[in-house]
Amino acid sequence: MRVAFLSYQWPGLRMGGIGSYVRQSAAALALAGHEPHVFTVGDEDALPDNVPVGVVLHHTPDPARRVFTSTLPAELAAVLNSGGEAVYRLAIAWLLTVAFQREHSQRAFDIVEAADVDASGLPLLLDAGRPLPVVVHLHTCTAIANRINNRVLGSQEQLIEAMEAAQIHLADALCAPTRAVVRSTEALVAINGEPATIAHPYVCPGAAFTPPPVDGPAVFVGRLEWRKGCGVIAEALNGFLTRNARARFRFIGPDTSTAPGESSVRLHILGTLAAQVCGRVEFTGELPPPQVETALNGCSFCVLPSLSENFSLAVCEAMAAGRTTIIAAGTGSVELVGDAGVVVEGGSAGSLLEAMDSTYRNRGRLNELSRLAFDRVRSLCDPISVSRQRVDFYRRVIAEFGRRTPGYTSDRLASLPAPVAAAVLPCISRITAALLRIDGPTDSPGCRLDDICQKLTAGQSESARVLLYGAGKHTARLLSERHRWERHGHRVVGLIDDHPRFLQTPQYLGLPVRSLADVQTDALAGNRLPAVVLSTDTYEEQFWEQTRSLREHGVRVFRLYGR
């Protein structure tokens, strides 16, 4: 079977559980003798070398690269950005769709799969004449994450939720790794039919089981998000570390601004910890996969009490290493671990504290559960077995798609919930006005950066020179508008980013990329540095904290969004 995956995420390009799932699923299908193709957005300057045998990775340039190579007019990119983050996601979906259609015209695919998050399959689903079915895989849609993270919904958040809801509603079929994520999704989004439940495949290391070390720390692996239960862990740690004087805890993963008030989760944890225990809590930040594997092998047990979870890759990694995991009730992780983990009451610091304390002290039970976890993930997530189930599901969907009646897509569109249209219409109006130059975009990332540059040079004859801190999706959006500040003579002269992909090729869209430590060394040496602009809307609080030493040495640092 020839299968196409549309995914903005891919390990090494953009982090996220969806990209990891796509890589694992494609690898499993290839191992089972099928032909999986993955369509993603990639930069030829920094393509990953982690493509599994038998998987074909197609990469298409994003809007910023297209502006850089003069294949997309900068003015049109600016209009695109007037639609905000939601329309940028839709633009990526269209780019993936066109790349897929080009390949499909050469040799036909049998089926397409896209994730609920980002709505990458929406353009295909809007095509009434599409020749093949589109399956939408339920991970944890943005609506679920927004509510658990207590995010205040503006027009952008509403539009992103609406796009994802439309894709789920229009899908030819749905699949999910657990019943828990189905229940969470259908509580917020209209679902047609009964989604198929198929576990995610996971290729486990070949090493033999080894019991957890006696003195290993307990660990959390993943983004430091509120919905991942990080706030609950922080409360439980005070009691756990006080009761157990030799115990340690390690957070592995990048910070986010999802704590109450959209503030840093890491800072929230530090503010919660008592002074006498905070020295035994470590934050490593994001680590490359080999270092994560080493950390899991060296830990005592894992604490992953997400408030909402579908089929956690972090739990799979822990189980594959033969490590017991503490998880929260009511989530997909319960279906994943079975009787090979410890389940606590969701959102309860007291319940988590008692589970951590018991797991730490009862060595025999810890070893028993660790062995059960090691065996269970190798059975439940066996790539060949899971691929067989997935292909059987695909074949049922293809047969049903062949029996669809005329007007099938139109009928689905007519039945879209009213809130979806309510979120979409204002955006259409705003973009139309921008195209006509009646009311051009005034609050896009490029406009904000141009305003900062103007402030930097107020009353001066020279132009501004700035460094952007961040070289991810937000910077890609921002650089697609580079004409906004360059027409005034201002320049972005470089980027700051510590992602491993820039170690071999320290360049992005024609700009040099330096590590934060390198820039800090320059500042300590008294060298004059350009102003730094935090190029992120997700990690702005974290980046602000990390640039403290630059600010203390006279470097001007600006936020694009915060105070």
Question: How is this structure best described in words?
Answer:
This protein has 563 residues and is an alpha/beta fold. Helices cover 45% and strands 14% of the residues. A 7-stranded parallel β-sheet has the order 3-2-1-4-5-6-7, sandwiched between helices. Strand 9, helix 10 and strand 10 form a beta-alpha-beta unit.
The CATH homologous superfamily of the largest domain: Glycogen Phosphorylase B
Report the biggest beta sheet as strand number plus sense, adding barrel if it closes: 7 strands, parallel
- Secondary structure tally: strands: 19
Q: Please report the number of helical segments.
A: 24
Features:
563 residues; alpha/beta; Rossmann fold; seven-stranded parallel sheet; six-stranded parallel sheet; 24 helices; 19 strands
Secondary-structure topology with pairs:
Elements (H helix, E strand, L loop, with lengths): L1 E5 L10 H15 L3 E7 L14 E5 L2 H6 L5 H9 L1 H23 L4 E5 L6 H4 L8 E4 L4 H7 L6 H16 L2 E4 L2 H8 L9 E2 L20 E4 L8 H14 L5 E4 L12 H8 L8 E5 L3 H9 L3 E3 L9 H8 L4 E4 L3 H6 L4 E3 L4 H13 L1 H18 L2 H19 L6 H7 L3 H18 L9 H12 L8 E5 L3 H7 L3 H4 L4 E6 L10 E2 L2 E4 L1 H9 L6 E4 L5 H7 L1 H5 L4 E3 L4
Parallel strand pairs: 1-2, 1-4, 2-3, 4-5, 5-6, 6-7, 8-9, 8-11, 9-10, 11-12, 12-13, 14-15, 14-18, 15-17, 18-19
Antiparallel strand pairs: 16-17
